[in-house]
Each structure stands twice: as structure tokens, then as C-alpha cells.
Amino acid sequence: MKHNPLDGDRRRERFEGDDLTRRILARTSGRACDRAAELLATGWDGPLAGDDQALLDDHLAHCAACRELAVILDRLQPMLPRLAEREPDPAFTRAVLARTTGVGGVRPTPTRWLDRLADRLAGAFGGLWNRPRFALEAGWTAAALLALVMWSPLGSGDQTADRAADVITAGTRVAPALVHWVEDRAADAEAAAADLLDMTSREAVDRLAGLGREASTRGEGFWNWSRSLLGTEPAPAGPAENETETTDRDRESR
Amino acid sequence: MNDATLYRRCREGDELAWETLVRRYQGRVCSVAFGYTGSEEEALDVAQEVFVRAWKRLDGCRDPERLASWLLSIARNCCLDHLRRRKARPPAQDVPAEEIETLADPIASTDASTELNERRDVLEVALHRLSPINREAILLKDIQELPLEEMAAMLDLPVGTVKSRCSRARAELARVVASLLNTGPDLEATP
Questions:
Q1: CA A161 and chain centroid, separation
Q2: Are A138 and A129 in contact (CB under 8 A)?
Q3: CATH code of the domain made up of B1-89
């Protein structure tokens, strides 16, 4: 058979071509495209080491898929930072500011337990009190709680039992004054409840926190006043300093 | 005003400083939240929570020069909390079996020809087809451009691990974009 020189060329192509490389890689390390892609992507952080760049260039020279990947990566790199911001509409900013600084500006960190409690409640129910229905329900609930706090003659804490015993011992001597005091508190609670129902939800919550603080002060005043009636302490003018005028005026009117 | 000064004035109770901080970073926080949730509505809700949480923990930023990292770290935590809650929450109504996959991937459910009209949309679709770990790497490193060290601290991983994770994520993103481009517009089709 006559030798055909083209056969040698074909053989050389087969021996040196990509096809043979692929077959060998398939039976050894597998394709290197994953490693090439990783190096291409690492190139975003800075130039590759000399050897890595040379190996990558060699691979790209023979791999069309990785060349396409390289082109896409080149185009992606400057595009991604453009996704860094998604500007929301102005309502978002208003909502955030309402939930943080509120209408009264930046609040200092609360120190009293009642303020902390109010703060936590505000955080927990922050999304609710903008709803009208919740505002109405919260108003009624607040009024009920307030009435309970105002009407409670015993205050709270470890001394409750002692205070209760003292009040019972006081008997008829304390009872008429106690009735007057409770009536005053009931009137206050009723007025406060009416105010709360006229307010927006946030105003109502702020008002409630204020009334809670006031109730705490009044409770302490009541205790001092009770002790004075029992004769265990020098007599102050009334249940609390800020209560004196109101109570005296009310008594006079009666 | 630089971030450190802004942060100091926020801590001093300057409400204008806080408003400036919110306006300065709300876009980035929303972008990160969208990256994690894949839903604009949920992203806005989560972004609000991010700022409320930041407000409550205003003392928590150790390095005011890295205010952005601190905020994005809070954003990440809020997003993960949100995703956990979403996963735990059952659907509000019975969902036919054939619709479950669609609901799980709202981006994929939309008409591809509409979604891919813009380059930005191509990227967003591609991003939401990445694995969560790879998407997070792209979000923080290549979109928000956080330094590797800050990202490593945020993820509580060695810098080397973060670096290789970023490389894998970019490669996966490029492959997904390539597959999208076979059915959509070219990346250079729109300016």
C-alpha cells in the first residue's frame, strides 16, 4: 500500500490535539475547568501569581468554555457593585424614624424599671399601635389597668403584706380618708381614660407611661400618708406633695 | 460628615444625625435584605427591623470607622432570623403540590422574557439561583465590597476560607449568567 503523507498529519493532530488531552484528563485528574474558573474569579481580588497566570493562560488557549466564562466574569465584576443600593421610597425613612426617634426626638436610655418596661412594650408592639382598632383596644385596656393601679391602696413589692396589715389595723380611723382618696383616684383614672381615647396610639402609650410613673409616686405618697395616720411617722400634708392641693380643694368643695 | 462623627453624634442623642445615618445606609441595607429574602416587600420589613435593632444597640459598634460593616452585620442577622421564621411558619392556606416549587422561588416563577429585559434583572435572577452560601459571599464581598477581614469576622470564618468561598461563588455566578444568556439578552444589551 502506498504511504499517504496526509495520514501522518492526521496522526500528529490526533496525538497532539485537545481530544487526546481530554481523554487523558478524563482518566486521570478530570477536567481542570473548575480550577481555571476559580483562578479566573480569584483574579478579581488582584493579579494572580506568575505560575498560576501562566497555567491559566495555557488552559484558556485550549478551552472555549472557560474563555467564555472569562469574558462573562470580566463583564460581571464592574456590574455587581451597582446592586449595592436599593433605595426605598420616602415612606420607609419616615417609618424607621417613627419607630426609633419618634415624634419626641432621641430618647435617653431609660433607668427606671417602669420606663424600661414601657420601652420594651413599645418595641414589642411597635407595629401594632399604628392601627386604629388596636388604638381603641389599647385605650380601653390602659384605662382598666390604670384604674386598678390607682385604686390599689397597697402598692407593691416586699412590703405589701406589712402595708396591708397596717391598713387593717388602722380600722375606722383610716377608712373615711381612704374612701376620699380612692374616689379622687377613680376620678383621675376616669379622666385619664377619656384623654387616652382621644389620643393617637403613640400619644396614648406615652401618656400611659407618664401616668404609670405618677401612680408609682402616688403609691409611695399614699404609704407615707397612711403611716402618718397610724401615728408612726410625722404627718405630711397628704398622700403626695403634688396631691395636697387637689385633695384639699376637693375636700373643701365637698 | 464621616461615619465616626455621625455615629458619635447619634450616641449623643442627635436625632438629625440618626436621620442622616438612616438615609445614608438604608439603600445598602435594603439591598442586602433583598439579596437574602428575594422579595422586595420582605426586604423592606427586614430593613426596618435592622434600623430599629441598630437604634436599640447604638452602643454596640466597636469601631465607628466600620459603621457600614456593623450595620450590614445586623442586617445579616435580621435576615437569617427572618428566613428561619419564614421556614418555620406554615403557609397561610393549603398550597397545591404543583405550586410549591414556584412559591419557594418567586424569581423563577416570573416570566423569563420579562425578567431578563435588563442587565440588572439578569444579575438578580442569577444571584437568586445561587446556593445561599455563594449568594451571601457575592452579596457581602462583591456587591457591598466589604474587606475580606471584615467579612471573615462577620461570618466567623478564616480569611482564607472566605476568599476561596468568594472565588467559587463568582465562578458559579458566571456559569448561571452564561446559562441565562442562552435564553435571554446579552449582558451588554442595555447600558
A1: 38
A2: yes
A3: 1.10.1740.10
User: Cβ distance B67 to B4 under 8 Å?
Assistant: yes
Helix (H) or strand (E) holding B46: helix B40-56
The ipTM is 0.74
The answer to whether B190 faces chain A, any CB pair under 8 Å, is: no
Contacting B residues, span 127-186, partner chain A, CB-CB under 8 Å = 127, 138, 142-145, 148, 163-164, 166-171, 173-175, 177-178, 181
Top-confidence residue, B22 or A31: B22
Per-domain residue ranges of chain B: 1-89, 97-191
Residues B161-181: pLDDT tens digits? 999 999 999 999 999 988 887
Q: How many helices (H) and strands (E) does chain A have?
A: 12, 0
| Facing residue for B13 by CB, picked from A92, A99, A108 | A108
What distance in Å separates residue A121's CA from the closest CA in chain B?
A: 13
Assess contact for B52 and A123: CB atoms under 8 A. Answer: yes
Q: Is B33:B47 a contact under the CB 8 Å cutoff?
A: yes
Nearest chain A Cα distance for residue B104, angstroms: 23
Of A83, A101, A123, the CB nearest to B143: A83
pLDDT of B28 higher than 80: yes
Average pLDDT, chain B: 80
Listed as own residue / partner, the contacts of B109-114 with beta carbons closer than 8 Å and 24 or more positions apart are B112/B183, B112/B184, B113/B184
Cα distance between residue A195 and residue A83, in whole Å? 49
Fold category of B97-191 in CATH: Arc Repressor Mutant, subunit A (1.10.10)
Counting Cβ atoms within 10 Å, is residue B22 exposed (0-12), middle (13-18) or buried (19+)?
Answer: buried
Q: Which of A40, A73, A96 sits opposite B22 (nearest CB)?
A: A96
Q: Which residue among B142, B167, B174 places its CB closest to the CB of A42?
A: B167
User: Rounded to whole angstroms, how far apart are CA atoms A92 and A200?
Assistant: 21
Q: Does residue B75 surpass a pLDDT of 90?
A: yes
Give the residue ranges of chain A where pLDDT is below 70: 1-18, 20-21, 29-30, 103-116, 119-139, 146-183, 185-205, 211-212, 215-216, 218-219, 222-223, 225-254
How many C-beta neighbours within 10 Å does residue B125 have?
A: 19
Name every chain B residue with its beta carbon within 8 A of the beta carbon of A31.
none
In sequence order, the 6+-apart residues with CB closer than 8 A to the CB of B171 are A34, A37, A38, A40, A41, A69, A73
CA distance linking residue A60 with residue A38, whole number of Å: 13
Inter-chain CB proximity B174 and A77 less than 8 Å: no
